[in-house]
Amino acid sequence: MEKIDVIEQAANRLLQHNVAEARIAIETGYPFHKMTAQGRNYTDKEKMAQFVRDGFIDRYSGQKLVNPGILKVLSYYMPETFPYHAHWKMEECHNAYWEFVPTVDHIYPVALGGADSMDNWATTSMLHNSIKSNWTLEQLNWKLYDAGDFDKYDGLTGLFTKLVEADKKLLSDSYIKRWYRLSVAVASK
After folding, report:
1. Quick one: which of 18, 25, 85, 89 has the fewest CB in 10 Å?
2. Pair 27, 53 in one domain
């Protein structure tokens, strides 16, 4: 029986003032499963490794993403034109941060019992991560796109490191400094 049919059956039982049969319909046809969520535990180094593994491709849309540091460089030089907000408040932060900065998402949500492991991680934009939330790909009718090839598209990581090396004052920004160090570590491999 389809889930929607179970809901309809339970609602019809309620219409007949039969709460007990409605409860049985739900418990047998579409039961609630309480999950104990695992923690989410990955370092910036692990995130960068995931972005490289996925070739800076949003695995939920197929869109190209960028090294997080490059957008902050734009904000450093053009704070009014390309604003940054530490908490990414939408009314105070350029949309590019939401659209192009990668993050790690759990393909099968941790809140539903998914593992917090590399096998369950995918690179996605902050925008798609917030839309996906704790839903499965099936629930959203999304698919998992193939990973990209970091050797063909590096998420502008090479350009980011060149910008920082051309102006070492950028390293006074802790966000830029963190992603620069991670980017250099990736480039040295």
Report:
1. 89
2. no
Which residue matches tokens 């999304």? 142
Angle in degrees, CA 59, 136, 32, rounded to 5: 170
Is there a single domain that holds both residue 74 and residue 165? yes
Per the structure, the count of domains in the chain is 2
| Chain centroid, CA 188 distance in Å | 26
Domain extent at residue 24: 1-32
Indicate if the alpha-carbon torsion angle 117, 123, 129, 135 is positive or negative.
Answer: negative
Cα–Cα distance between 45 and 51 in angstroms, integer? Answer: 10
Residues 26-64: tens digit of each pLDDT: 999 998 877 665 666 789 999 999 999 999 999 999 999
Whether the predicted model's global pTM rises above the 0.85 cut: no
For residues 7 and 125, what is the distance between their CA atoms, to the nearest angstrom?
34
Tokens of 91: 């009314």
Alpha-carbon Rg for the chain, nearest whole angstrom, is 22
Per-residue DSSP letter, 62: -
58 and 131 in a single domain? The answer is yes
Listed residue (106, 134, 133) closest to 119, CA to CA = 106
